[in-house]
Write a structure and sequence with these properties.
The structure holds 2 protein chains of 2 kinds. Chain A has no helices and 11 strands. By secondary structure, chain A is an all-beta fold. In chain A, strands 2, 4, 5, 6, 9, 10 and 11 form a 7-stranded mixed sheet that branches. In chain A, strands 1-3-8-7 form a 4-stranded antiparallel sheet, with no helix packed on it. The radius of gyration of chain A is 13 Å and the shape is globular. Chain B starts with a strand and ends with a strand. The chains are: A mainly beta, B mainly beta. At the A-B interface, β4, β5, β9 and β10 of A face β5 and β6 of B.
């Protein structure tokens, strides 16, 4: 099956620093990738839709200047959390879509901001 | 906007028994996709089963099957011969077939416990 990787799987950083999370589709090309945030015991909350070669589309309430998304190629999207604060601590999941009827998820990244 | 409702926050089943997880959705569209995803403690989201709305036949994947009732906007998941490895959070999700609307809309999830 299709594989999506995320790196790093977990990261701890100090408040005020920036953190970059990579999402790669390993065996397929994805014109569209998605970034989600998941709080403990809750569902996935879509943050933004990332399209290769164009600006990301952010969901209402998501700060685009804080969560920078870049979709530089058909297999790579990055999420940068800028000036991270403890409230940004969460589990971040990406997914990639090779077609409209399919969407595959990465293993997630646990971010802890001290 | 589309919404997905999972009315069972938690369910439990005995090993080898059958369990059904409920999902209803609201949409004005006629063409869409419905999914069930499994999220075990590892938190990796795993696709369990997919249904295209234009197909009347219910999807089946080994021990997993769905009961898709389009008119009632219902999409339940049946797990037969439950195994310990089936214990996880299960999320129902909707995706429009309309161009430019590729995002998934998730329900709040059902936590399934499998008792030995």
């Amino acid at each position: 099956g299709a594989v999506v990787s995320q790196h790093p799987s977990w990261v701890i950083c100090k408040s005020g620093t920036s953190v970059k999370i990579e999402c790669r589709s390993l065996d397929f090309q994805a014109t569209t990738m998605f970034w989600y945030r998941q709080f403990p015991k809750q569902s996935l909350m879509l943050m933004a839709t990332s399209n290769e070669g164009s600006k990301a589309t952010y969901e209402q309430g998501v700060e685009k200047d804080k969560f920078l998304i870049n979709h530089a190629s058909l297999t790579l999207s990055t999420l940068t959390v800028t000036s991270a604060h403890p409230e940004d601590s969460s589990f971040y999941i990406c997914s990639a879509s090779p077609s409209r009827s399919q969407q595959y998820f990465g293993p997630g990244t646990r971010l802890t901001v001290l | 906007a589309q919404t997905v409702t999972q009315s069972q926050p938690e369910m439990s089943v005995q090993e080898a028994e059958t369990v059904t997880l409920s999902c209803t959705y609201d949409t004005s569209e006629s063409d869409y996709y419905l999914f069930w995803y499994k999220q075990p403690p590892s938190r990796q989201m795993i696709l369990v089963i997919r249904q295209e709305a234009y197909k009347q036949q219910n999807a089946t994947e080994n021990r997993f099957s769905v009961n898709f009732q389009k008119a009632a906007k219902s999409f339940s998941l049946k797990i037969s011969d439950s195994q310990l490895g089936d214990a996880a959070m299960y999320f129902c999700a909707y995706r429009s077939a309309r161009g430019g609307s590729e995002k998934l809309v998730f329900g709040k999830g059902t936590k399934l416990t499998v008792n030995p």
